[in-house]
Amino acid sequence: MSTSVLTDAPASAAASSAPASSSISAQPSIPDQAPTAAEPAFTTPVSPRRAAVILVAMTVSTFLFVLVEGLPSGLLLLMAPDLNTTTSAIGLLVTGYALVVLVATVPLAHVTRNIPRRWVLAATIGLVVIGTVWGGAAHSYGSLLAARLVTALAHALFWVAVLPGTTGLFPPRVRGRVTARLAIGNSLAPLLGIPAGTWLGEHTSWRVTFWVAAGLSVVIFALVVFLFPTMKPSASGAAKAPFPDRKRFSFQLVATALIVTGAFGLLVFVTELLRDLAGFSLSMIPGLLLIQGVAGLLGALVIARFLDRFAWESLVVALLLVLVALVVLAAFGQHGWVAVAAIALFGFAFTAIPPTFSHRVMQNAPTSADMGIATSSAIFNLGIAGGSGLGALLVATVGVRMVPLMGAVLIVLGLLAVLAERRFCAPLPTRRHDIDAVFPAASSN
Asked: Which domains does the chain have, with CATH numbers?
């Protein structure tokens, strides 16, 4: 991703011949109308060039956190025999991780609410270094579980800091696009990180994969310390939601819990489904996960074009596609390449859902944006714990084929919650002057 990630594509060949430097400093606009003299001037706290570089660095950091969280799902078939345990027990590492995030997010957000985001982010990444090195050195399931729980404490605070901290560096009308750009890191983790980690684990040891992730954490720690501005949360342009609405926020939390629970059973046990139901060999699984990851990256790129103006509609479309993928897996998952196609569709659609959740919370949180993100993150991780726990139960009792069926039922319930929100809450503004008008100018460094 280049430093011009937030500039609009040129409309003509003449526009494309403009100097490259203009693409860096130009701010994108929502294309429903041109700006007028009456629109407020929004002053960002850093220069557009610096903000774009920080966005790239923060996207790398989201890659790291999703990679570290998801490594057991790619390595479970290697970790289980080495630690003398079962694949369902390895899957519960994700459940325990998510439960820590669920319990710790809101208290940690409250305790750190006045600390500059730069130092909060540096501390979270430093803790990932410690937890991942420890995890790679663990020689018992209990020790590995303890290391994962320590790492989860960092995860609990990371998303609270990175979303408002990064989006606040950009004008309000493009913050949906910024959120989607951050989600590219989420997509690249399953696209590159987890398949590469699985491949590396197969050719060396799953422990080496953990230690490589720890090395990446050190690099990202340095990037955060040197690039992110020293700015208290209250000085961020995203400190408060522009359209606070407690009723809408409540609908969003219910939908988040149901949808994430429905999706994460498959995400955690996808390798077992590909092996035991679809019939693929272990050596083919990294390549199949790569297909899912490529589809997810495409989904992240697509959602960036629509999120600022069509957040609710984008969520509904993504949920319908996820539902189709899960139903196909439940009905036809024993047919190898049909299963691969369904998993690719699932990856494409589900990647759009977390940034949509985050962007909508940043718009509607009834208190501060930090606490809104903290609450939403806790509920998201409740869904991860529920999905991985239900998945582990199903795998251990009736088989992996029931995991996508369980997911489909919960996605339907989540979709009903999303539709109920539109029924009982008024639509949000989408025009750029309506969005920018609710924000005061941000404080400059």
From this structure: 49-426 (1.20.1250.20)
